[in-house]
Amino acid sequence: MELKIKPLGDRIVIRPVSGEMKLASGIVLPDTASEKPMHGEVLAVGSGRVLENGTRVPMEVKVGDKVLYSKFGGTDIKINDEDLLILNERDVHAIL
Amino acid sequence: MELKIKPLGDRIVIRPVSGEMKLASGIVLPDTASEKPMHGEVLAVGSGRVLENGTRVPMEVKVGDKVLYSKFGGTDIKINDEDLLILNERDVHAIL
Amino acid sequence: MELKIKPLGDRIVIRPVSGEMKLASGIVLPDTASEKPMHGEVLAVGSGRVLENGTRVPMEVKVGDKVLYSKFGGTDIKINDEDLLILNERDVHAIL
Amino acid sequence: MELKIKPLGDRIVIRPVSGEMKLASGIVLPDTASEKPMHGEVLAVGSGRVLENGTRVPMEVKVGDKVLYSKFGGTDIKINDEDLLILNERDVHAIL
Amino acid sequence: MELKIKPLGDRIVIRPVSGEMKLASGIVLPDTASEKPMHGEVLAVGSGRVLENGTRVPMEVKVGDKVLYSKFGGTDIKINDEDLLILNERDVHAIL
Amino acid sequence: MELKIKPLGDRIVIRPVSGEMKLASGIVLPDTASEKPMHGEVLAVGSGRVLENGTRVPMEVKVGDKVLYSKFGGTDIKINDEDLLILNERDVHAIL
Amino acid sequence: MELKIKPLGDRIVIRPVSGEMKLASGIVLPDTASEKPMHGEVLAVGSGRVLENGTRVPMEVKVGDKVLYSKFGGTDIKINDEDLLILNERDVHAIL
After folding, report:
1. Total number of domains constituting chain C
2. D 17-76 residues inside an 8 A Cβ radius of A
3. Which residue in B41, B69, E77, G52 has the most C-beta neighbors within 10 A?
4. Does B90 fall in a domain?
5. What integer pLDDT is reported at residue E7 of this predicted model?
6. Among B9-18, D3-12, F23-32, where is mean pLDDT lowest?
7. Which residue did the predictor score with more confidence, A75 or G3?
8. Do F88 and F60 contact (CB within 8 A), yes or no?
9. Domain CATH code at residue D39
10. Which residues in chain B have Cβ-Cβ distances shorter than 8 Å to A55?
C-alpha cells in the first residue's frame, strides 16, 4: 500500500514493525530493544537529495521494502490514527 | 490566496493550521502536540537555493500545498494581524 | 536614496524602520518586538557571494527594497549620525 | 557466505571474529582488547557512497574479505540469532 | 603608500584610523567604540583565495581603499613602530 | 619489507622508530618526547583518498619512506607481535 | 640553505628568528611578544594542497622567504639539534 503523501528530498515514510520479522530470504529479526536499529516497511519515498550539479540521487529504497533503520533523527507522525515515522534515507542501514 | 511577499532563497511562508486536517486523499491529521511536526498551507515560495554551479534547485512545494513541517528553525512573523511562519524548504517533511 | 558605500560580497546596508509599515500591497507589519524579525529599507548592496566555479550569485535584493530580516548576525554601524545595519543577504527572509 | 541483505551507501555488514586470527599471508592478529581495532569477515557490502558528480565510489572491500575495523560508529544488529555489525567503509582500516 | 610586504591568500594589511573620518563622498564616520566595526586604510592586499577549480577570486579591496571592518579574527602586527592589522577580506564589511 | 595488508583510502601502516635516526642526508632526529611528532618507517600504503570528481589523490608517501608524523588520530595495531600504527597520510608531516 | 626533508601537502618548515629583523625593504620587525605573530625563514616547502579537481595549488612561499606567521597550529620539531617548526601555508600571514 502506498501512502498518498509525498516526502521531500530523500525522506521516506516508514511503518515500524514490532516483534519478529520473517522474510522470504530466511532472515528472522528478533524483537529489537529500543537502543538497537528498528525494522519497518517503507510506505512512501521522496525524489532523492539534490547534488551540487543539480541532479538528484536516485533513491535506493522503494515503497514496499522492508528496511533496517536507526530511529535517531527521524520524526514521529500520526496519520489516520497510525503511528508512522519520517526519516532520511541516510538513516536506513539496509534493505532486508 | 498568494501572499504579496517574496521569500528569499528556498524560504517559504506557511499559515499554520490548528486542529484536525481532513484531506481529499483521505488522510486525516490529528491535532498536533507542540513537539510533533505541524501542518499548514503554503502562502508564498522563494526561487530556490543556489547550487555551487550557479543554478537554482526548483522548489518542490508550491503555493496552496498542504505540508507537514518542523517548526524548529522557522521564524514567526505577523502580517495583517495573522500569525505566519517563514521557514526553509528543508524543514518541510512532506506534501500532503 | 543610495548610500555611497560599497558592501563586500553578499552584504547589504539596511536602514531599520520602527513601527508599522504600510505597503502598496496592503501588507501592514505591526511594531516588532525585539526577538522578532525586523523590517527596513535597503540602502546599498554588494556584488554577491562567489561560487566555487568563480561566478557571483546575483543579489536578490536591490536598493530601495523593503525587507524582512533577522538582526542576528548583523553589524551595527553609524554613518552621518544615522544608525544603520550591515548584514548578509542570507539573513534577509523576504522582500515585501 | 553472502548475507541476503543489501546495505545502503558505503555500509557493510561484518561478522566480528574473537580471539587470534591466522591468515594465509602469515599475519597473526592477537586477541583484541576492546579499545583496539577489531577484526572480522565481511558478509555484505553496499553500492558505495555517491559523489557530488552523481557517480558512486566503488567499494574497496568485498564479501569474504577479512578486515581490521574500528567499532566506533558501527551499529549492532542481530540476524538469525547471530550478532553482526553494520558500519561504513570509512571505519575499515585495512584488508588483511 | 604601499607597504613592501605581500599578504597571502585573501589577506590584507590595514592601518587603523582613530577618531572621526570625513570622506570625499560626504560620509562622516564617528569615533568608533571598541565593540563596533572599525575603519582604516588598506596598505597591502593578497592575491585572493583559491577556489576549488584552481582559480583565484579577484580581491574586492585595493591599496588605498578606506574600509569598514570587524577586528574580530584579525592579527595585530607592528612594522616600523607602527601598529597595523592583518585580516582576511571576508572581515571587511564595506569600501567607503 | 612490505606488509601483506592493504590499508584503505589514504591510510598507511607505520613501524615507529624509537631513539635517534641517522639518515643518508645527515639528518639526525633526537629521541622524541611524547608530545612531539614521532618518526617511523612506512610498511604499507593505501590507494589514496577519493576526490569529489571520482579520482584518487596519488599517495605522497611510499613503502620504505622514513616519515615524521603526529600520532594524534592514529590507531595502534599489533601484527605478528609487533606494535604498529595505522594513520592517515594527512597526519604525516614530512618525508625525511 | 635548503633542508633535505620533504614537507607533505601545503606544509612548510620554518626556522624561527628571534629579535629584530632588518630587511632590504627597510622593514624592521621589533622583537615579538609571544601572543603576536612570529617571523622566520622558510627552509622547505611542500607540493601544495590538492583541490577537489585533483590539481595542486602552487605554494605562495618559497625556500629562503622571510615570513610572518602564527605559531598556533604549528608543530615543533628538532633536527640536527636546531629547533624548527612545521606549519601549513595557511598559517603564514605574509611574505616580508
Report:
1. 1
2. 44, 47, 50, 52-54, 75-76
3. B69
4. yes
5. 92
6. F23-32
7. A75
8. no
9. 2.30.33.40
10. none
Identity of the residue in D23, D27, D94 whose CB atom sits nearest the CB atom of F11 = D94
The three three-digit cell numbers of residue F51, written as one number: 576526490
Domain that holds residue D81: 11-95
Is residue B5 situated within a structural domain? no
Asked if pLDDT for residue G28 goes beyond 80, the answer is no
Residue at E62: amino acid letter: K
The beta-carbon neighbor of A52 closest among D13, D52, D76 is D52
Mean pLDDT of C48-77: 91
In a domain, E54, yes or no: yes
Please name the member of A13, A44, A53 whose beta carbon is closest to the beta carbon of B53: A53
Q: Using one digit for the tens of pLDDT, what is the confidence trace for C5-22? A: 899 999 999 998 877 777
Phi and psi, residue B91, nearest 5°: -90, 0
Judging contacts by C-beta atoms under 8 Å, the chain A residues touching residue D53 are: 51, 53
Residue A6: inside a domain: no
In D65-95, which positions are buried (b, 16+ CB within 10 angstroms) versus exposed (e)?
Answer: bbbbbbbeebbebbbeeeebbbbbbebbbbb
Please give the residue that has the higher pLDDT: either G63 or F5.
G63
Measured CA to CA, the distance from residue G74 to residue G11 in angstroms comes to: 10
- With touching defined as 3 or more inter-chain CB pairs under 8 Å, the answer for chains E and A is no
pLDDT of residue E4: 80
According to the model, what pLDDT value does residue D73 have? 75
CB of D69 within 8 A of CB of D95? Answer: no
Task: Using alpha carbons only, give the angle D74, D77, D80 rounded to the nearest 5 degrees.
Answer: 150
Kindly determine whether residue F94 and residue G47, on different chains, have CB atoms separated by under 8 Å: no
